[in-house]
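Kindly go through the entry underneath: sequence plus fold tokens. Please state briefly how this chain folds according to its tokens.
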Amino acid sequence: MNRLKFDLWVGFFVAIGFASLLFLALKVGNLSGASVGETYRLDAKFDNIGSLKIRAPVKTAGVVVGRVSDIRLDAANYVAIVSMQVGKQYEFPSDTFATIMTSGLLGEQYVGFEVGGDTEVLKDGDVIKKTQSAVVIEKLISQFMFNKAADSGN
């Protein structure tokens, strides 16, 4: 009887451990069911999106206001077009600035909105004209190394 009780407790704690791992995996992968209700679509064109993924958050002032819904390549101009679903309760001026930013230790990338001051607001299907692409760390490091090598040659 004592062995059976011990086995049940071990099984209970193993089940809690698996549930915790599943919860963390869903949180890290942005697959949890946090939705923003009714949405409208905004598009933005970027030269480089880094490792931005579909379902990445769209934030302003640290608050999630939407999600990235689609990423595609404009074959004519060779730029990435990022489509975002933004909650209808959030209205942004037409001069809003969209930036691809990085947060956290894992380097999760998201789209950040910096609100402008225009009185006209963005509507469903509008394109955000002011954008800033992702900062690629590898490119910065290679530029630094190249500059150091050029300086040491003098």
Q: What stands out?
A: The radius of gyration is 22 Å. The beta strands are 39-46, 57-60, 63-74, 79-87, 97-103, 108-114, 127-128, 130-132. The mean pLDDT is 86.
